[in-house]
Amino acid sequence: MTLRHFRILQTVAETGSFTKAADRLYITQSAVSHAIREMEEEAGTELFDRLPRKVRLTPCGQLLLEEVTPILASCDTLEAHMGRLEYQAPLRIVSSITIASFWLPEALRSFHSEWPDTEVYVDVAPAAGAMNLLQKGKVDLALTEGTLPQGAYVCEIFASYSMKILCAPGYRKKPGPADVKELSQEKLLLREKGSAVRDTFDSALYLNGYAAYPRWTSVNSQALMEAAKAGLGITVLPEPLVEKEIRKGELIELEVPDLKLENELIAVRHRSKYVTMPMRGLLKSVRSCKGRTAKGQEIPQI
């Protein structure tokens, strides 16, 4: 038996007539009779009493109708929702820590104002972990930073930020700028390998012929900031994260003229993955969001 059989059974029961059921369902009376006969053969019993002017469910027919009615109701509900499935399906994104801190909240607030029925689930992870989740198909969109990922991806740069080389006031005895060699020999307080900040810093040193051998390695930028404030070494962190500490004089910037440290922020998705209307809306919100520093100033967009 199929849903078509169940719908014919329900309609005949409601109208009390094979002819009226056929008219309501826009099929022939013979099609209705044939479907009822098929169900009766499968059930091994009569489902309708054929009276002179109408048909009426038998007790067995009533039992079957009670079983199929919830199924048909669910189908009706599904049919009503079919046109809105795309809007109700959740979006899953992964974001780097910096983007989640300074860009994502504004983007999601804007998105939800236009797409209130679409839930968004967010994982916050280092840049390398973000791309791993996208690669495995566990998320629809990765908001990451640093170098453009290789592979069958659509990548869109939507903003950028500078990274600051920082230490506590009085930490360095030698005033003025430092060169790359001096910096590489310092007590460095750095993010872990695989983070966008660390990868960018390591690449900049490598291009100048040097490498980093940090005294501290941490997944927590706040811990590195506090260590630098305590005079334990030099750290490299995103400008939006340390703007307040610089303004208050708790950290000072060390100039290294030969190092240009900047990360681009990238929205990444699979090239072959269908882009729903809500996803288009989310990408639009990401493009238009303006990151904020601790002081509330806008971070430059690309």
TrEMBL record:
Signal peptide: none annotated. The keyword Protease does not apply. Residues 1-58 form the HTH lysR-type domain. One of its GO terms (molecular function) is transcription cis-regulatory region binding. The keyword Transcription regulation applies. InterPro entries: LysR_HTH_N (IPR000847), LysR_subst-bd (IPR005119), WH-like_DNA-bd_sf (IPR036388), WH_DNA-bd_sf (IPR036390). Keywords: DNA-binding, Transcription, Transcription regulation. It holds the Pfam family HTH_1. Belongs to the LysR transcriptional regulatory family. This is LysR family transcriptional regulator. It comes from Qiania dongpingensis. The lineage of its organism: Bacteria, Bacillati, Bacillota, Clostridia, Lachnospirales.
